[in-house]
Amino acid sequence: SPEDTLEDAQVRKLDVICRKLRLQPGERMLDIGCGWGSLMIHAAANYGVRVVGVTLSEAQAAFARKRVVEAGLSDQCEVRIQDYREVDDGPYDKIVSVGMFEHVGSSQLGRYMERVTSLGTPGGLALHHGICRVHEEDQAPNTFIQRYVFPDGELHKVATVVAAAERAGQEIRDLESMREHYALTLRHWVDNLAA
């Protein structure tokens, strides 16, 4: 809600993701594009899962590893500097990707979905969380979002993401648009930047 702090909203978002994945103690979860480790830590601490997080950023990996140690979750969380296409120790019961598939590009979206399918266990769940576009035309290259928020990223149409997942053998069980929530997040970011 507009009254939420950014921090409170973030914790609630992490919990929504974990609940949608129906996490159970002892399950293995893969976090593709694990960033600073927030989701890994939340899932391990509150749902008892074992998590492997992969990122291409050495800075993010170092910070996430430090946070994992500080949280006392080293036996449940592993952070790797690794491309998701190189992960070869599946299957995983649950796979999650938050804000990453925008960066694989339109030409690689199908390969991304196929890789997620191949890393999952039959009957497992995957959650793809990303920013999608609603308009039909291609993105203008010189917009604020293209230049400063997602340089070299591509925002896909929801239908394109769904079709790629289905072609890769994934069954869509839930689809939710959280557009209004993101607008509130952006307002908080702007306030933080101005401050």
Rg is 17 Å
For the report, how would you describe the main beta sheet?
Answer: 5 strands, parallel
Count of beta strands: 5
Indicate the multimeric state: single chain
> What pattern of helices and strands is seen along the backbone?
HEHEHEEHEHHH
Strand order of the largest sheet: 3-2-1-4-5
Tell me what you see in this structure:
There is one protein chain. By secondary structure, the chain is α/β, with parallel strands linked by helices. It has helices at 6-20, 38-47, 58-70, 109-119, 144-149, 158-167, 179-194; strands at 28-32, 50-55, 77-81, 92-98, 120-129. It has a five-stranded parallel β-sheet with strand order 3-2-1-4-5. α1 (6-20) crosses α2 and α4 crosses α6. The two termini are 21 Å apart. The mean pLDDT is 91.
Topology:
Blueprint: H1 6-20, E1 28-32, H2 38-47, E2 50-55, H3 58-70, E3 77-81, E4 92-98, H4 109-119, E5 120-129, H5 144-149, H6 158-167, H7 179-194
Parallel strand pairs: 1-2, 1-4, 2-3, 4-5
Keywords:
alpha/beta, five-stranded parallel β-sheet, 17% strand, globular
What's the quick description here?
The protein is an alpha/beta fold and 195 residues long. It has seven helices and five strands.
